[in-house]
Specification:
Number of strands: 9
Largest sheet: 6 strands, mixed
Number of domains: 1
Radius of gyration: 15 Å
CATH class: Alpha Beta
CATH topology: Double-stranded beta-helix
Order of helices and strands: EEHEHEEHEEEE
Number of helices: 3
Oligomer: single chain
Strand order of the largest sheet: 1-2-3-7-4-9
CATH superfamily: Clavaminate synthase-like
């Protein structure tokens, strides 16, 4: 694991296609509790594999269920712009520096980003969608 900031965001070198040991899932759950935003670089996921990974952390529910964890996989990204900003809701109201409160993710093809919806607020930044494509596949569990 490589923390992105001291308390918010961590990069994890785990192949999310599986198969998984119980200790792999426990590691991800502990990292999510501590850092709220997890980045798994260099993944090669189909939508079915992404859903299979997400199923380890909750149930797929209808729109009425409150989301708990989201998973976004980058298939195509623009060469400029299109960052995703995350705000740490655990410290956003406290006296904290901007680096402690937020993290801007610069997407790479193959990134899978997972975050706890109760602790992190996500905002996608604009990019020139008239010139560049972006394909991010999102799965949410409750």
């Amino acid at each position: 694991m490589h923390p992105i900031t001291e308390r918010f965001g961590v990069e994890i070198g785990l192949d999310t296609r599986g198969p998984f040991e119980v200790s792999d899932i426990a590691l991800v759950e502990a990292a999510l509790a501590r850092f709220a935003v997890l980045v798994f670089p260099d993944q090669n996921l189909s939508e079915a594999r992404q859903k299979a990974f997400a199923a380890h952390f909750g149930k797929f529910e209808g729109d009425a269920a409150a989301p708990r964890i989201s998973f976004v996989f980058a298939r195509t990204i623009p060469p400029v712009g299109g960052l995703t900003e995350f705000i740490d809701l655990r410290v956003a109201g406290a006296q904290a520096t901007p680096r402690q409160v937020g993290y801007a993710h610069r997407w790479r093809v193959g990134d899978l980003v997972m975050w706890d919806e109760r602790c992190a607020l996500r905002q996608d930044r604009p990019f020139d969608d008239t010139r560049f494509a972006r394909d991010l596949c999102c799965v949410t569990v409750s």
